[in-house]
Amino acid sequence: PGAPKELYSPQDPLALLDSRSLPRALNNSASAWLLEFYSSWCGHCVQYAPTWRVLAGDVKDWEPVIKIGVLDCANEVNTDVCKQYGIQYYPSFRFFKAFTKEFTQGENYKSGAEHDVQTVRQVIIDFLQNSPAESKPPACPSLAPIESSQVESLIAVKESHYTAVIYESPDSYIGREVILDFVQYEGLVVKRALDTDKEALQKLGIVSVPSCYLIYPNGTHGLINNLEPLRSLFSSHLKSLPGVRKKTLSRPELTTKPTKPDKMTETWKEFDKSKMYMADLESGLHYLLRVEVATHQMLKGDELKAFKDFITILYKLFPGRPHVARLLETLQDWLVSMPLDKIPYDAILDLVNNKMQISGIYLTSHVQWVGCQGSEPGLRGYPCSLWKLFHTLTVQAALQPNALTNTAFEGNSQAVLQTMRQYIKHFFGCRECAGHFESMAKESMDDVKTLKEAVLWLWSKHNKVNKRLAGAASEDVKSPKVDWPTPDMCPACHGEVKGVHNWNEEEVLVFLKKHYGSKDISLLYSD
Ligand code: FAD
């Protein structure tokens, strides 16, 4: 047999340590550490790796306080270090306190037993609370409950941020989990209070615990209703509040400014985030046809094919108003009738622009972002509309399974996804984004077998991108990057299995079909 397969990869949300990096990571670290010493040939470790990976993702936001890492004792470069740490059984779990300067073997937790994610989270919290003051990570907020009198004084003052108070029973960990979920966020402070002062609870209208009581920056306050009292739902709801955002990452992140800056609209347009706006889709089409693809002077080869396929998909599936649908039809007919193996883009532009003269066929010639408005220049806008466009197209394909009959895409469940892949690859102005998207496509797009799976594939990949970009410079405070749809938009989409957030994909699909289905597209602010 060859070398044992590695159980963890650099893509996992944890630190892959070895004999050299381990001492450096632990020495005088400002955060505590929880390490799994494993062996890649140990069956238990293999079975447990998915749980550990989920745990690391689940507490990724706690990183300034506690980091999760792994070290493979089966790798020969680590033999000595595993001996030094006294590792005899796999997997072994060890806690290391913050600011450790002398060598220590760390603290074992429960004789190597494998625990589910929820239990490990609670063990972490117990460890943090039992750490002596001198080794408390500075980023760790107070995890102790506050008194009801303190809640009253919080309600009495206006602050620049929200305050969420989680009311719970003394043995509940939810409050502390949510407090830790927000150590990297600004705009919100989380506290916990116990359910012992019944009179105080009654005053606030709290009839059951755990409950989340929210004090707004303007001083108004109230109980968050309609949310199942689960840690992940409290956290995702609070993360979706306007103005709550992940603190900017210190390492440079990609920004996604379009190739040419959008014309900014002067006044903020109120909109409903649960609605789709035709103005966003049409503005996106305008930008794409007249600016983004227009940077290519001549379309030929794969680019020409990608463009033609894209127009076919738009013509068949874009839920446009009649004047836009006719423009797409005209463009499609013209491209099909062109036997040329290269087309100067000016010819296409002529068609798109001149058709405006003929009454009844036109596409708006400026951008008007509504649901894709950015609160500052350079934020949101075009990339937002592109996501919305492709989600709409995957949903339309699922709603009308026969729409692509008699086209080259007949019977192809990946038609929209492959067309998007080619568009992004050849034309999307943000090249880093295109590279990221291509690697996701390469990894799993081929597994998509049905039109429904195509809808869910794009949804889950978009969430993956959101996760990566939370706190990045391209994030708009008014539209934080969060798991989407948020619990307030679709409570039934969310649940927990063994204490870990779990999507109900059937419900997500129902939601996406409704959200991106044509009946929901608002014409507000459309020309
Ligand atoms: P967006 O992420 O653009 O989302 C637009 C809207 O879609 C949201 O407002 C919401 O209504 C809805 N939505 C959100 N999540 C989902 C979901 N999971 N499923 C369905 N609908 C959802 N930027 C980078 O910095 N680095 C990158 O690598 C990168 N890659 C990208 C790849 C692609 C293919 C695209 C189209 C964009 C990429 N971007 C990247 C841009 C980035 O994803 C955002 O589009 C941009 O930052 C604007 O963000 P936004 O707040 O408007 O929300």
Automatic annotation (TrEMBL):
Its EC number is 1.8.3.2. One of its GO terms (cellular component) is extracellular space. It catalyses: 2 R'C(R)SH + O2 = R'C(R)S-S(R)CR' + H2O2. Keywords: Disulfide bond, FAD, Flavoprotein, Glycoprotein, Membrane, Oxidoreductase, Signal, Transmembrane, Transmembrane helix. One of its GO terms (biological process) is protein folding. Its cofactor is FAD. Residues 375-484 form the ERV/ALR sulfhydryl oxidase domain. GO terms for molecular function: flavin-dependent sulfhydryl oxidase activity; protein disulfide isomerase activity. It comes from the Eukaryota. Residues 1-130 form the Thioredoxin domain. Belongs to the quiescin-sulfhydryl oxidase (QSOX) family. Catalyzes the oxidation of sulfhydryl groups in peptide and protein thiols to disulfides with the reduction of oxygen to hydrogen peroxide. This is Sulfhydryl oxidase. The chain holds residues 23 to 549 of 660 of the full protein.
